Amino acid sequence: MHFPQRYASLALVTISIGLLVTSCSESKVAQCNKVNSVAIKTKSFTAPKDSAGLTQFADSIETIRTEMQAVKVEDEKLKDFQTRFVELYTEVGLAAREISKVLATKDQATKDQATNIDETAKDQAAKDKAAKDKAARDKVTKDAQAAIEKEAPLLEEINQYCSS
Question: Which residues are within 8 A (CB) of 94 and not within 5 positions of it... i.e. 6 or more apart?
Fold first, then answer.
């Protein structure tokens, strides 16, 4: 007679612990909201116009990347989304810094060219450097644009997952 009571007590304790653990973990919707609340912060950014603005933009993106990394999620699919956002923000931040460097170099080259009075050799060197700078700027801009364009589909994907 003692055995059935013991099993009944054990079953009751097991069920109670299961309910407690289930009720203590956050719902998928709550976890989605945490990830989305960080991701939508980028929507308030405006396009930077110069090297200093790009550096500030990169700093802001890195802050959001750090915030995204700090979000605690248990859902495996949301962890995947979180990882993808962190990778995206890393790419965008690095690209913004690279564009900032290219623009700063271009600005310096323009200043140097204005102060140079010696002609032909310097003019050709300046033209070659300008062509290289333009190619670098175009590549970095293209890479940055590609990274930025990944955000909208990623947001749509997470919203679809969270609403299901």
Answer: 58
